[in-house]
Amino acid sequence: MALLNQIAQNTSCNRLHEVQERCARWLLQTHDRVDSDEFPLTQEFLSQMLGVHRPSVSVAAATLQRAGLIDYTRGNIRIAHRKGLEAASCTCYRVIKREYTRLVDGE
C-alpha cells in the first residue's frame, strides 16, 4: 500500500511541480533510504527518475548547490543542508513521508 501511494503521489508530482522541487523531493527520498549524506548519482539517472532531459537536472542541481543545500560533483552528491532541502521540495515529499510512516511504522 505504501508503494502504491508513493507511485500515485510521484505521478501527480511529476505533472504539477517544477523540476527543482521534484529534484529536491527525489534527493530527500533517496537520503531517507541510504545510510550516508553522500551517495553516487549521475544527472542522467536523475533525469530518468524525474522524467526530464538531463540539462534540466543540471540547472536544478546547480540551483540547489548555489543555495548551499547540496554539493554535487560528477556522479556524486552530498546532502549539505537537509532542512533547507526539505523547504525547497514540493509538498509531495511531506505527503509521501507521512503516509509511509503511517503505513509502515503504524503511526
Structural notes for this entry:
By secondary structure, the chain is mostly helical. The protein contains six helices and three strands, in the order ααβααββαα. It is globular and about 40 Å long.
Report the average pLDDT across residues: 87
Note the quaternary state here: single chain
Low-pLDDT ranges: none
Number of helices: 6
Features:
67% helix; three-stranded antiparallel sheet; mainly alpha; 6 helices; 107 residues; single chain
Structure described in brief:
By secondary structure, this protein is mainly α. Helix content is 67%, strand content 10%.
How are the secondary structure elements laid out?
Blueprint: H1 2-16, H2 19-33, E1 38-40, H3 43-50, H4 54-66, E2 70-73, E3 76-79, H5 82-88, H6 92-105
Antiparallel strand pairs: 1-3, 2-3
Helix pairs in contact: 1-6, 2-4, 2-5, 3-4
